[in-house]
Batch of 3 targets.
Target 1
Amino acid sequence: MTVWRQSGLVWLGALIAAGMALLAQVLLARHFDAALFGAISYAYAIAILVSTFGFQGIGEVAIRHGGRLDAMQCLRTAVVLFATATIGAVVWILAVGSPDSEPVLLTLFFPFAIIQIGMIAGMIAFQIERHTIGIALWPAGFQGARLAVVIAIVSLGGIAILVPIGWTIALIPMAIFGLRRLKRAGKWSTGARDASPPSVTRSAFPFSTTRVLEFAEIQMPIVLALPLLGDAETGRIAASLAIIQGFLLLPIAIFQRLLRPRFHEWAREDPDRLRRIALIGTSSMLAIGAGLGLLTRPFSSDLLAGLFGSDFAPASSFLDSVLLVLPIWFASIAINSTLVSHRLADLRLGTQVIAVGILIVTPLVMSSALGSNGIIWGMIGCQGFLLVSGVTLLLFGQTKD
């Protein structure tokens, strides 16, 4: 199967997953009010950030080493990273407060965060095996399980706390399958990749940090909105970002899922090819993002009101602004996904810390009276810096391991 056909298949799977994710968001927003929807989105965002830091970096190391890692080292690393992320989340919640409408949601999303280890393991297994169909359909399975729970809750008139409980229970079979699949996938390769790295924790930490920072680029506006703007405005921002996430699945599916194993391979064996593909991909994503943003902006108000309800229409100006950032966002995802050599991964960690710092500090410095404009400017600064720094590292950094 050619790369173009593989990309098309993965993008199709991403579209299906995005459609189901958006439908779940729409149903939740219409079933609950904007404030409660904002509280759910806030708790979900924190759970995803915690699980990403806890487990995603180990997955990246597993890809690099063909799944041949010491199980106990991986378990210890997962515990350390997950505990660190959980402590950080607790500190944040204590500092800014929990959603007034449903504080128990934060606690109930903790098991959901833990179960993500199996979801991440399944995707990593398919990436190790280069199983295109698995890469394409695994996110759809995840979103399908979430959607089924939401449909059941809405149909039965359920309360908000059933959302994290239902999602956790529904995902347990997939999580078990994902862990078992990763265990089998580790036998796919022999040779130089057989040896575990000297320290799984040392190897995983830069990847965990960079991946959580990547997720923070989309989730952090929701996390920031609640203490700055309140539950209802957080819900409206979450609705806008749900639409944006559907667009972002294009570069994510291709560069962070399908081509990720090849980037690791080219970093070792053919850095010139890696650099060439990265520049072509970044240019393509810049153009595609610009086209999608311009085509969607005239319909942003109708899109929000039609999907989520009239209560969400005031967020149309926020959605308009984010759509202007879309081409930069597409390009920054593409370029930074290719920076996988040990040296560039460490440098990328530094640039992403700065970028997310820009995202966080900008709305905090700007007056909350400006509404969501501070978050918008933070997103512009964050993505612009990531794009410029990513291109600089690719052109002048050491792409070969």
Target 2
Amino acid sequence: MWSLTLAAIAAGLLGTLAHAQNFTINVPAFDSSSVTLDPPNSWTTVNANQAFSGGAEFLVANQAQGRVTFTFPTPSSTFEYWGYQRSGGGLASLSIDGGAAVQIDFFGPGTTGNEPPLLFFSTSNLTNAIHTVVIQNLVDPRVGHADQLNVDKFVLHGPIPSPRPTPPSFPSNTHLADGPVGFSYHAFLALGADSPLNGGSGANTVEVLFDTGASSAWVDWIGCTDPDCGGSHHRYRPSSQHFFNSSIEDDIFFNDQTWRVNDTVTLGSLSIPSSTFGAAFGMDPETVDGNFGMAKSYCNGVLCSLYPNFIENSFEQALLAAPALSFYQLAPTDAPASGVTSRVALGGVDRNKFTGNMDWIPLTSSSMWQVPWGRRFVTRASGTIDATLQFNHEILTFDTGDPGLLGVPSDDWITLTTLTGAIQDSNSNWLFPCAASLTWNFNGSTNRNYTVVLSDQNTAQTINGTRFCAALANDSGDVQNWITGVPFLDQYYVSFYFGRRGVGASMGFGTKNLAASAASSSPVIGTP
């Protein structure tokens, strides 16, 4: 019988839930359900010093024919073999799944037999699967015979994934407020006096980034006298009906300073008469008219941002049937049918924008859109390995405001570049083998895999017989979380589901539908 122990993995971020745990399985040598000792009747159980579970198995007869076969009782990417040194000699070969054998040296000329067991072999580079290990006793040329092959225990480690989330269900009165999306998650809002709700035409809009990596909002407005306001920007004009200035100043980011105001926000068919955002009175040069943070406003039911974003505010005021923000953002490599364009939908999921079922993934309780854990597979020239346990940081943040493919904490960057065989050129720029990739599995509702190629395939060069390409991932320094941005998100139809005040929040990923039907809209009723 094998034993299982659990150790919670620290989340590394205040307010985050550690959904993943590690398992450790110790399999004693006498566990006949996983271990076969050959030849039969040639082994005996010895109460050796510190033997796991009270006894280790020693080969006491027919040493030249000794063999141990161990089949994993559960999938794992790691393996350890523990045993005892022998003073009379000791040499064996170990192979996994019939692969190349390695030698195990358990000869200890000075051993007295009272020492504790030693770790003879370990690996963490296996695929996460059931593996079979064969240990074959060998003649030790140093003593001229085979000696007492022995096993104390085998040890497996691995992550226990969080339970798969239940996809959100959209009510029968779900309707979508749909609008165009410009470059990289830029939406167009009619604010204040320009909203049809306040007598505006709705045609005068501001272009704002819907930024899932930010929790507050700013927009250029007619009251701003900063030199970087105005110019080519479209500007927010306060309404006479719903404008209210709280006289609270907020420093948002990148030196953007705002008055916290309330006014009307309109996108497509949705108009919320009064929602909070920031009217900028100081800003750096910007290419957009504003930035509307779309991080979760609530963390487990408690407001954890300066104020609710207008989507959650609309849901609270029953203007939306569901608190969802869904993007159909066409990537540069997409080839959609004529008339199909990038769109954003508020209030639900658009059935016409994806095929198959969406994969809904669990999130942390943080305001950021973060998955707490994911199994990570690294593909390199020698094959694919489950590298989950080799990385120190578990959390991955999804940020529509980040133009990069993948930012990796420095210590995990060292691991990633080492595993893939990445190198630096003469200018210290990183190059990955062109075939290197990283695949996540977030234990989502459909168990989907998400693969990113780590380099720009258009930059290939051959170095010492290997094709290398310029890195698309980067070392993000002394940070605690991985982060992925626009190039990753662009691959999918993505829905950010806020839950009710943060409770039940989830993210859904679907395969984009590029056919002509994607030009029209149809809300999902029930589970997408």
Target 3
Amino acid sequence: MSLRELRLKRGLTQDQLAKKIPGMSRGRIAAYEGGHRAIDGMSLATALKFCDALHVSNPRKLLEPEGGHADDMDADA
């Protein structure tokens, strides 16, 4: 699943996700989701913050294309 899909699966808006990650802005999330900023270029620390906020155990899930699978998402949605 892509970053956008993971966010939507959790029922979060970009603003809500940004508020869960210190120092993150809605615009930066939009840039990652829209492909204007490379997700594979984000720091490990940033990827781990996204994982924590989205309850994802593997940062590689952030790199999956739209329609990918997130089999290792934690059970609590």
